[in-house]
Specification:
The protein is an alpha/beta fold and 351 residues long. It has 12 helices and 13 strands. Helices cover 39% and strands 16% of the residues. The chain binds flavin mononucleotide. The site of flavin mononucleotide (FMN) has 26 residues, from strand 6, strand 11 and helix 11.
């Protein structure tokens, strides 16, 4: 099946503009969501053995999740869950709707198995996301909701902007991610700084702690941090018991030839893998298993997923791998894990 995807379908899809293909694919799977026979067929094709894991107090049937950015508008959680994911992260969602950057804003560095995007949080906004989630959940697997700030919101107002979004979406997510690392929203990465990060997470945690159901909060970090910056982020995560998702896309182009250097945006996929793994390894060392960690960046198969677990990830997410390897990626990863007898070592509970 994956062979057919790569030899036939991918060849056809890659003839067209990446964003047009993505939107068309999402639209078609979205319409299958209400056709139960279609859901069952997809489920049968994508089914693999379970790898039960508990992380951040949530029980997952397996530790492989969909990364944020694939379903920004919470359109297709039910059908995406049928691809075998142990969880889905939807978004990034901002408080108010926004159109994002001008097109073209999504590019395939095909010969390097990379993707560059400068989407800029195009999404229908938190209220529309809440309406959709009300209709489409439960998805059958835990759902994380990834929150960002509106492009026109000044950095000083970011805590309020994120908090309003969190409040609006709170009934619908099993966990929440504060995205502080997209390179496509001006100054967003400034939120990694210690004081700014504390000002961002404190009101969010006050809200969560005052709620009847206390849900885990993650921060999603950049792979481009200096060691001192990473150390500060780790200290903040430990202080506030925040989970960490490592990593978002990179602004570096070290592993790509000259021709891609001037293409602005965040790079993901295979050329991100080493950088993302380095960040994950350092972070796991700094946090020493005391907060939950997700690894994301350049996972294309079972071996690269296992590498993330070995470096300290409790859960792993994929995005670019789905585009290059096809919709049976999760099944292939889980089958490989089973074949090699690998089991994610850490299945601890975190406060
Ligand atoms: C087209 C595209 C859009 C993305 N949008 C988001 C987003 O909205 N929010 C976010 O946190 N990450 C976003 N990401 C980053 C991914 O979630 C992931 O962190 C990154 O791509 C590395 O994983 P990968 O190498 O498996 O793609 C996006 C990635 C791509 C390729």
């Amino acid at each position: 099946m994956s062979f057919l995807y790569k030899k036939l379908l991918r060849e056809v899809l890659f003839q067209f503009d990446p964003e047009t293909v993505h939107d068309a694919m999402l639209r078609s799977v979205r319409s299958l969501q209400n056709v139960s026979a279609a859901g069952r067929v997809i489920e049968l094709l994508a089914r693999a053995g379970d790898f039960p894991v508990t992380a951040a107090g949530i029980a997952f049937k397996n530790p492989i999740g969909l990364a944020a950015g694939f379903d920004k508008n919470c359109e297709a959680p039910r059908i995406l869950a049928k691809l075998g994911f142990g969880f889905l992260e939807l978004g990034t969602i901002t408080l108010r709707p926004q159109t994002g950057n001008p097109r073209p804003r999504l590019f395939r560095a095909r010969e390097h198995k990379g993707i560059i995007n400068r989407m800029g949080f195009n999404n229908a906004g938190a209220y529309e996301a809440a309406r959709r989630l009300q209709r489409l959940l439960p998805a059958g697997v835990p759902v994380g909701l990834n929150i960002g700030k509106n492009a026109d919101c000044p950095l000083d107002d970011a805590p309020r902007n994120y908090l309003e979004t969190l409040k609006t979406l709170y009934p619908f997510g099993d966990y929440f991610t504060l995205n502080i690392s997209s390179p496509n929203t001006l100054q967003l990465r400034e939120l990694h700084r210690k004081e700014r990060l504390a000002r961002l997470v404190e009101p969010a945690l006050d809200f969560i702690n005052g709620s009847a159901a206390k849900k885990p909060l993650f921060i999603k970090i950049a792979p481009d941090l200096e060691h001192a910056e990473l150390k500060e982020v780790a200290e903040t995560a430990l202080k506030y018991s925040l989970g960490i998702i490592a990593t978002n896309t990179t602004v570096k182009r070290d592993h790509l030839p000259e021709v891609w250097r001037s293409c602005e945006g965040g790079l993901s996929g295979l050329p991100l893998r080493d950088l993302s793994n380095e960040t994950l390894k350092k972070l796991a060392g700094l946090t020493a298993g005391r907060v939950p960690v997700m690894g994301v960046g350049g996972v294309f198969d079972g071996a690269s997923a296992i590498e993330k677990f070995r470096l300290g990830a409790d859960l792993v997410q994929v995005y670019s791998g789905l585009i290059y390897e096809g919709p049976l990626l999760v099944k292939n990863i889980l089958n490989y894990m089973k074949k090699t007898g690998f089991s994610p070592a850490k299945t601890g509970e975190y406060a």
